[in-house]
User: Fold these one by one.
Assistant:
Number 1:
Amino acid sequence: MRDAETILRAGSLIDFGTAGSRPESLGTHLAIAGDRIVAVGGAELERAYPAAGVIDFGGDAAILPGLIDCHTHPVWGSESQGGSLGLGGVTSLAQLRERLEAARAAADPDAWITGYDLDVNAFEGAEPNGRVFEEWLPGRRVSLMTRDAHALVVSPAVVAGIGLTGDEVFADASSIVADAGGPTGWVLELQAMDLVLAHLPQAPLAVQADYLADALRGFAETGLTEVHALDFHEPSRELYEELERRGELPVRVRVYPLVPADSTPEVWAGIAALQGVGGRRWRVDGAKFMLDGTADNGTAWFAEPDRLGENHEALWRSTDAYREAVRFFTERGVPTATHAIGDAAVDFVLDVVAEVGHAPSAPHRIEHIESIPDATVARFAELGVVASIQPTHATRLTEADGSDNWSRRIGPDRVAHGWRIRDLIAQGAPVVLGSDWPIGVGDPRVSLADAQLRRPVGEPDRGEHQPEQKIDAAAAYRSMTSVPAGLFGGAGDVAGAGAGAGDAPRGRFDPGSVADLTVLAADPMGLSPEAQAVNPVLATFVDGGRVVGA
């Protein structure tokens, strides 16, 4: 092992250990050579490596393995937010009208008005309908993406301009909702949404790269050293390459391209050919599936229909085709991540993994897992399937009193089985946490706090959501550090050493491990969840280089 070039000094180096163990400090000093950890210990490291530069973060600071967000959408998230209208906090049609009229006043007369983060509860119990936009903004093209990113509400001007009829046929369960008067402007699921999104004006590539750079920098500033990107549409590759021409990415990015529902083996082969494509800090290393949609839209797949007679079908019209697609990728060594919200969808994924096994590089994983019964919880550990869950979905997309659309639709019994993080961990399942940014809050400190509180941190008057699913700080931080690092390895080259170096040990302080680190002002194990959410990030290190706080 080469001599250390840098020594980090803090109050503690926190090793989160394995499930059920207590976190412990391994010392106060950490020595780095290039991109690797050389040694951990105390002041003796300064004597052992007298030529190394010392960075002193103070006696209260804590150095952690780098925080990892296992579910984000950096490209489309940054695209959708760049130049679009944020609709967070809009809970009524009156508020929505106010926002849209303000946007019209500020925009060019012929410009589209686009928005994101639209809460369907704003339609006050009715199915979303874009015809109201014509009353407020006559003739204006309006396209608003719902908070779950699985639907659009568009104005009649958009319907007419594109020529939507309601008779469109899709390979999956997407639809252009229509009634006796024609399309209502309610556009459900991805293939239907694509008909609209293809017509939206696109910013120049350089501007889109600026949006993406801001998003990745924001991740690093909140303590993240790696994100998993569950999207890879055009021009994702060009954007990552453009940012690397400008310099290093501030975080690692592990990319999972989407396998479209009911797609063909030829499409699968094209996605398989993308595996390993990447750069210094990003790499395609997996494939994403969407087996169902969302409960809010009625497109999730539960064993029993919801109260409106919906939420009981797969998004893939042929579940046999889904099974064969997962087998195709597994046989080629490609791990998969499947969006599955309803209990029937989750069970079907588990059935498929039981048949085809895991890829050798990483286990298969299931995303979201919003409501599952006891028997399904136990199967995750039995099969070694990773449960990838977003704590802020549990605390911020529904209401504890059951008054929200999600709760009303699926009913109290299934609500009571929502986001079972604690139960999955207790059964021995591998659990990783993420944000689903931009749908969820991108700051990992908020996700970690919400997971412990089961309510939005900073909102003590909000009710707790399934409070029996609270986890402690150690379990929360472990699920965003050592667990995902151990399961999924690296993303991109490590210090230019080649793609294989991306699989070097991470998420730990052993000599030879990659120096991806998060430095916080205080040891989170000694703080309340409320204090953890605002615990200052003093620095992040990726490949041993300081990214934030320099």
Number 2:
Amino acid sequence: MVFMHSYCESNSSISRTWVDEGISPCFYFTLVPTILLTVAIFLGTLHCIFYQKYGTAMEPKFIPRSCLYAFQQITSAVLLIQFLGGVIWRAASGGELPGYVVLYGCFSAAAWAWAIALLRVERRRALLMDRTRGHSAALLLFWALAFSAENLAFISWYSPHWWWGLDNNQEQVQFALWLMRYVGTGLLFFIGLRAPGLPQKPYMLLINEDERDVEQSGQSLLGGTDPNQSTWQGFRKKVALLVPYMWPRGSILLQLLVIFCLGLLGVERAINVFVPIYYKNIVNELTDGSSWHTLATTVCIYVLLKFLQGGGAGSSGFVSNMRSFLWIRVQQFTNRVVQVRLFAHLHSLSLRWHLGRKTGDVLRSIDRGTSSINSLLSYIVFSIFPTIADIVISIIYFITYFNAWFGLIVFVCMTLYLTLTIIITEWRTKYRREMNQQDNNAKSKAVDSLLNFETVKYYNAENYEVSRFEDAILKYQESEWKTQASLAFLNQTQNLIIGSGLLAGSLLCAYFVTEGKFKVGDFVLFGTYIIQLYTPLNWFGTYYRMIQNSFIDMESMFKLFEEEEEVKDEVNAGSLLYKQGKVEFENVYFSYTNGKEILRDVSFTVLPGQTVALVGQSGSGKSTIIRLLFRFYNVQGGCIRIDGQDISKVKQTSLRAHIGVVPQDTVLFNDTIRDNIRYGRITATDQEVEEAALAADIHDKIMAFPEGYDTQVGERGLKLSGGEKQRVAIARTILKAPQIILLDEATSALDTQTERNIQASLAKVCANRTTIVVAHRLSTIIGADQILVVSEGRIAERGRHEELLHKGGLYADMWMKQQQAQDSDSSSDTEAKDRKSEKLQPPSTSSGHHSH
């Protein structure tokens, strides 16, 4: 007894667990450090052995720098010091120093010293066979046990042997130390789930990626995403992008609607508390024999509350339905703003990006991204926050009106439920991401195949395309199975925790009813409240998954938002002041990819009203000059000026308003011919459209169609021939009536007769306008004021047609080859006509054959 008396306080024994409505301090402060030290030593030793035997030292460049990791170390060190400090303070205070206090301080300090050591080992070494990321199970279990142990103190809320009363200085210091431990262990556990000081990928994967850095320079359009990356990574940036859509700026009505909906949300929380209370009152009044008037009033109030609440989760109640109805306008506002902003952003991206995009991928990303933003806002505001609020209210209610055991049961169940839901859902993330990727892949193959329908038919590749699409769907379904299987596992885990908590609470409540401490109505209240609480909690996992899925779905859309505009207007850019139309290229350098220059030191001047022709071999850089002048790209060296103004210093819209382009490959909108021509100037009248068509020599052809100008041209204008499409593009440019005209092999798709007609039309349009022509047929640019011969990115020759022929250089060589080709074609046509006429003539007979 002497030992027990010296180990525990006077009138206390370690064998007595429950004393005066609380856990015995002697029992608690012996059990907790013993378990923690056992876990730390046993699992920590195994941990160190494994890391020493199967691990390797990490290279410093792969170890992330993290303030949170430093915080983990500092917090662990502070906790260790406070355990020892608590013992020293208790000894110095002059009062009784029980043995369990010394054991608690020493054992706990030793356990936390082990934890710090494990933290440092994980920081420096990595398991080569490890396919996961984050802290080891040993550390996470240690932090979870330490945090749970501090929560056990709540059970002794009413016990006089604990510090909750804060009656004297000693209790106040003990409470302060507990508060420090509670906050410290809680932060360590929740920060530990993120593992800030450790690489977010398996170490071997990091090494392999480092070696493949050069190969990975050409990534896909939407970028690669690590399948093991947490969806909460970059959370701050994602939320920053969402914030503008959360509050409907510029609409007071919508802002009032948001505030009113949030008010209804608060009303729902209050109703959820009062429904089980009134149900309890009905049961108690029935058992106590209350008057009919009192009972009827209580029943009516209960039914009214139930009508307002609806199903247990508030899914079909009057308040919930009213909130959902009012929220529709806010949701539509968000949806519209997101889609419009993204659409505008895509149009602001450079031609380089659009040439490399996958249309199917982009469309799927936009669809999923915009819908996921609505889902995210709805789940966070109307599901996650209310559920957390219900949990907090319920814990406070049970502790206050029942006792701490019920609060503890609810708290432990909620903590376990939420923790496991988050851990398992984070683990499932990679399957969801992979499924999205395969879905994008399948849709991209389908879109690409349908867009290239003609090519598929040319090569009898229908079966090949179908098999490719089927393979993509099979891969998608394999990823989908993993996603659904992991979801089923998560649901079973959640059901197990909810069932265990309901069983424990119901048994305890029933026991108190049999002991006479509770009434039957209290049992009904507990059952009603806990089931009402578990209903939204059961959906909490779904909400969390939906939020996480929304983040995953938004990742591709965020990557689109993050695409930088290659060609931007300067901050103080002014409008182009057009005077005469003088175009100057001065020492221009340009390359599409590093190391391969397309243009080198190109300099030339186009005087106002002149026509300059660019000729040369394919790939020499002729079309690039047109694109640079239209500012699809920025030059990498030199300068382009119009009327002495650097085009990189003026607004793109003002520059392009003065320039008209007839491209080599014309693509039309899937609309009527009239609207396709009117695209040159949206405000043009029908008469102006027809005049432009007449000038482009296509009016008669259009009128020959059954529907005339209302004829639908089909997707990308496929219902029209190449020549017809080209003439529509020319009519569109004529309608725009620009001061500077760029013709990029504008007549390449036309027959000789039509080409001559178009040339005459273009000559009228280009009269007194600065014109730059890219030509393949040299016969079309004989009358140009200046001809530039582009070769390997440089201007090799320049001059008028006759001058260049006299030089006998590249231009003369090209001219001779084209003339020979034309002569060859014309002679072969003549021979064919001769052969045809010979077949048609009857055989001739000689007169000598008839003489005798």
Number 3:
Amino acid sequence: MALLTGWGRRLPSWLRNIWQEVAAFGIVGALAFVVEIVGFNLLVFGLTPSGDGALRGSPVLASSLATLLAMVVSWVGNRYWTYRDRRGPIDLREVTLFIGVNLAGMVVTAIPVYLSHTVLGLGSPLSDNIARLVGWAAATVLRFVAYRTLVFTSADASAEAAAAKDATPVPGTADRSTAPLREAWRSGRLWPWCLAVLAAFCGYCVATVFHPGYVTTDSIDQLRQALGDWPVNDWHPPVMALLWRVLIATTGSFSAMAALQAAVLWGALWLLARVVWLRTRSHGLSLAMLAVGLAPHVVNFTGVVWKDVHMAYAMLAVLALALTARELPAGRTRTRWVLFGLGALLLAYCVLVRKNGLPAVIPVFALLVMAVWPSPGRRRWLLTSGLLVAVTAVGSVGVSAITQPIATKQVAQLPLDDLLHVLTPAQVGRAAEKAGATDDFRDRLVTAATRCQTRKIASDAYFMCYPRERPTAATTTELGEHSEVLFRMWTQQMPKHWKGYLEYRTRVYAKLMFQSNQQFQSGHYLSPGMTLPEPVAKAPYNETLRQTLQAYVTGALRDLSMIYQGWFWTAVALVLLLRRRWPGPYTRELRLLGASTVLYMLAYFPTAPQSNYRYLYWPAVSGTVALLLVAVGYAIRRREARQEAAEAAGTTPEPAGPAAGTPDAAGPAQPREAAVTG
């Protein structure tokens, strides 16, 4: 006993007093737990021998309702007993935080039940209650920490003032070891980590909706190449097939590719949200940046394995790295080079995964360099440009050496489309003879031209009109066999029919800009005659989640169709590019983002094979982020105006964030800021 007393005296005072709080919290929690468990079992299993409650088929909903009931019990018990010494008038802050913490606890509690039913396939009373117990334990820890540090703190200020005045000891529950944590929350240093947790949770939910990853004909081709069922060819980017092969070898699952896409998106959005918070100290704007990932025109393709999605998310990650580099204090040379190196790797991947994305990469590269080094000289421009070219070239050679792709000369699709839609079938036949085509190829071209014009097919002639007789896996080399003839025909005929060429390309481009289709990829889509690879067939997607996502996306398509159309995002990009100056520090970044979209869309005028929303995905993602950065700029300008007004009135405004030049500063020191925004 003496030994225990001695150890007790050595313990800090907060640890000797906290047992009272733990006991009270435990009793309240036990009561809430009983209410929750009983409520859950009544809703799911009822009181009848059959074990069928009102919500037997909806255990997640039953869990949520039971938790809401327990939430009321918890609030009354903790406010009026556990933390009664810190109880003040009921205010909006306390109620909001209490509801937020318990909603988070509700989600934590429901996750094991969801996994038990959907992943493990369990549904017995024992398994459901075990899952509930696991979730309850995790949620209890979350609630205890949040209650004592965030929610029930309304009387802290008065208690500390009284202690300072007469040195009267405060009750044990007010003597906290978590003062640094509360100070971190008040100062804003804790909020970026809250954003990180929220981003991770959102990324997990999105990946769950798309699990194991929606696939198209293009995706299936690349998956078969990654699995080794088909030889690698360059019709689709070999670098993507190689990446998928590595992920499958590492994780043992083809779904890792879709999970990686979601991770890159939400990681980039977290970095951007963190930058927004450092600049504005606005919870709303930082959360709005995270919400970009849940926007209907962004989330619709998050789990679809497409090269367009890879390019868009890689470019977004470069933007996030660039804006993060802007916030670095003076110096930090090594960190700047690391951020630039990561950005260069991502940009090289963009070029390798989507060759026609090169025009869009150039402005983003300039954005990266000028964000890492506010005033790069000629040597630095030459050095960084050379590094990007070297990384891209080495990556291309390395991927080719590893995969040894079959050369398909896919670019021959472009002259084929132009010839079949600009010339008449008779003109196509004569042009083929003049260019030295074989009789068989000439007849195929004439047949394709007749089909396209009879059926009024406007584009994608190779797949829609051309009479291909061999399986899809082999026809990827057919155009390559006749590519020289096609290019010879194009150079001989298009100068003579330039008006028809401009009319045709304008018609296809207008459809891309105003009538983009396939705004939602509904699960697994295959061309006629194709079959799913065995790993995909054995891992079907969740039809309920798919229908929910589809209703969300198509509902937005019905009400806000412009966000799925190229003209809207091109117009946004032109405004970003042509306006001379924007409020806030991101004028240069906004103009370069606008230039990236404009160049990317212009590059599609001579190359667009068909009308498809996936070709607009990068403009939609970058345009949405850019509009939020514009809002951030206006918020910064209003804050500066308030500070100037306060200074003019002779008062000291409350600082919006840490002082410039400190490690937690919202931005660099003033001289560097002038260089950045000038």
Number 4:
Amino acid sequence: MIIRVNKTSQDGLTKKVDFKNEVFYYHIFGSLYLENETEVIKAIQDDNHRYLEKLVGDFTIVVLDSTFRSVKIVSDRPGKKNIFHYINEGVLTISDDFWEIKNALSLGIDDLDITGIKQQIVFSTGLNNRTILKGVKTVPAATILTIDLTKDTVTTKRYWQFSYINNQLSYDDKLDLIDETFTNALGAIRALNPEEPSFAVGISGGLDSRIIPYYAKKNGMQIEGFTIGLEKPRKLFLSNDFNSANKIADHFGLERRTLNYNSIPFETQLNMESKLAPEVCSQIFKIVDVSELKSNVLLTGASGFIIGASPLYKSIKQSPLIEHTLLHQSLLGVKPKAAKAKKAISSLTGLALDFMPKLSASGFGDFFTKDELDECIADIETFYTEFETISDSEKLMNYAIFGLGRNNSKGAFESFLGQKESYSIYTPFFLDTVQQFNEAELLDRQLFQEFIANRLPELNSIQGQSFKPTLSGNINPITNVSKKIFAMGNFVIRGNGVMNYENWVNSSEFKKLKLRLDNDTKNIQTKLDLSFDYGEHRVHPGIQQNILKMQTILLKM
């Protein structure tokens, strides 16, 4: 939807509310869930941060005052809606659709931001709300933008940030709080969709695959399971992921459907995601025919970093913040050779082997130079200056929420590129809960894993993804080693059935498509003085996927 506002008129703001003898016109992108719209608009005008930070929803709200001088745009805390805005000569244009605002502003190849293009490829998003279109920005999370139509100025004020809250909660109190949050989250989703006969859930053997069905059933919700990937990568046995997915489905009595990662040709996948979600990282290998699912609503574990998943590794306590951010919030990390084998041996023996990704601090040749990397680092440092008084792990959480978080709302696992209604069990529901954790409990999902091991022991015995062993409480070292050996052996024999991107980018279909898109975009690359050639550099498979998607987008410009 397009909204246009200038000094004398507005188009698209169809609702209004009277407040303090003044009329305010407004529009809500997304949903306020169960909140009262009028009270929310009043809180925005009163600049009531305490009220806004308690809102639960998936929204961005646009409010215009009756004088037609000022517009406020307010996003939810996790910033789940990608909303685009552009201000020029007293005219403000807003949309929730990239192609819509591009066409409304009559922008083309000459209006592309080369830095924005490269940031979206390498960081999976533009830094500091940049897009690939010059002058077009996204609305940051947990923020009030105030736009003065008489001066063409934009003032940014963040009304919430993540930080640990000192409390007197005991260990058991915190486990109770996690249980209560999950119960309330699924209960709220159920209340928002009272007519839905079933809800779709991705089942892959991971922690979310166990948590979501458990609490969905606790709230009386019917579940339809699906797994995207390849069932038998070793040709003979079911993959480790699919084997675990079947056990989870059996445990909960679920129907589970396999959706092959290549059931739709890769070129068709690229065209779909370039049309439906051009502003986020590539979802190729995860796009399927949504009509194969009966359910209209997805329950997901999007933004799992909220409870301490990647990038919130304990290594942040030893690594400089910028280096850790680049390694775990960009695609600049390159794994050393035999990384999986080294990781397995290290996990089993405790030896300090070199298996962690290494930062490509010099970039990737002409495609992404050292100077361009330094420019990106400066953008990240600018972001972190807002949070000078908090710890590095808190800063990183804010970076993840305000950057990566919004991209998950159009991820293929999370919403099938927006073709299905979707809800995450983590955002916004867990934001307040996790602030009650301390750093040790958050990093590496420590408290979350202990919660499953202690409160949901019936979900422990199923092996996790990759060669992760089953979860456990306090066990002796010998038992721990034997479980690791079994898990590794099982994984080696069965192989990886989901998210096996390193192998899939080496498929002949992918390579042929890469060669063709390189040729088809040659003239555009020359015109923009842009290179997608990373030479002989080993790069993350995500970069290869993102380049193909960006090339597809350029061909549509």
